[in-house]
Amino acid sequence: MALPFAASVDFAIDKDAGKPCRNLQTDFRCGIHAQLREKGFPGCTVFDCMGAGQKISQVTFGGQDWRQTPDAARQMFDVFPIMRQLHELLWYLTEALTLPPARPIHRDLRRALDETERLTRSSPEKLAELDMVGVRHGVNGLLVQTSDLVRATVPGRKKNHRGADLVGARLTGANLRGANLRGAYLIAADLKNADLRTADLIGADLRNADLSGADLTGSFFLTQSQLNSARGDSTTRLSADLTRPGHW
How many Å apart are CA 202 and CA 93, to the nearest integer? Predict the structure, then answer.
């Protein structure tokens, strides 16, 4: 409802922000959920609001229904992108606190987690006024420190592909252990049998990347939605907290 779609390989139709998707049912469920990929909506299968939608509807607006309270609908939709960013930061901070090498900064990470959680419980008006650039900047500094500490446990020289354009790159069998792949564009990259252990994959675009046989055990800041956007097979090795996508 809140987000716009543009007709593409990810979405079969155009949809304006604030307009219901044609597949949205009266019970708020998706009418084609089991056939999204077949119906031309693979983008929906990889999207994850990380709980921001639930927080907006159940906490920020106290369980109000945008259909029954249309006056509140616009405000709900306006603050949703802000809440999604906050919940994304919560997800990364929570994972950072599970990484033993980051123990020297766990206190700072915990403080940032508590503060970010506090912000998610702000009123709609306060959320709309948040300086998200400043909030993200502060948290990102801690996440970069976390990455440096974790990747330092990997011996030898590590690859730095932060923000790199690796669209369609041939990286079969590449040694990317402990690599910095933050924000890297790996769309349709060939990563078959690549070693991605202990690699930082925060924000990496893995759409249609081939991870067949790749080893991602110990890779961090990798979300399920990133994994769902890629291709892989039964030989792809994953950390225990990630689920092998059903379409692989």
Answer: 12
